[in-house]
Design brief:
It contains three helices and eight strands; from the N terminus they run αββββαββαββ. By secondary structure, the protein is α+β, with helices and mostly antiparallel strands. The chain has one domain: Electron Transport, Fmn-binding Protein, Chain A (Pnp Oxidase, Chain A, Roll). Strands 1, 2, 3, 4, 5, 6, 7 and 8 form an eight-stranded antiparallel beta sheet that branches.
């Protein structure tokens, strides 16, 4: 059974719909952080972060092994970190859905036949006081 979404304030919800990129942190096999720039979408109704990426990427390998990730978005003094259990989704309907969400927030993604979705079920929220 899915966990209920962590509630975001109106300011935080607005922030995660603005056109910003963020960083994704996963853990390497030796436990050190692997941090990369990403574009992501957030769905308030389900509390899911979605990142479209290549299935052979290091971040995908890290999530498959560890099952946890955090994405952080920063704009000046405003910042928000969304973290939780993570999974790799490789079914066509979910990939199309993630691509459509990406298109709305950013632009149409380039074609990638090995694309997957790195999905985070947000269970913890950290952020600047202005977004609480």
């Amino acid at each position: 059974m899915p966990t209920p979404p962590v509630p975001l304030s109106a300011a935080a919800l607005e922030f995660v719909t603005e056109r910003h990129h963020g960083t994704l942190t996963t853990l390497r096999p030796n436990g050190t952080p692997h941090v990369v720039a990403v574009a992501f979408t957030y769905e308030a109704e389900t509390g899911l972060v979605r990142i479209i990426t290549d299935g052979a990427s290091q971040k995908v390998r890290n999530v498959r092994r560890n099952g946890y990730a955090a994405v952080c978005q920063v704009d000046g003094a405003r910042w928000l970190t969304l973290e939780g259990p993570a999974a790799i989704i490789d079914t066509a309907p979910e990939i199309r859905d993630a691509e459509e969400r990406f298109t709305v927030r950013f632009r149409p993604p380039r074609i990638n036949p090995t694309r997957v979705v790195l999905q985070i079920d947000v269970s913890r929220l950290l952020g600047s006081a202005s977004l609480k």
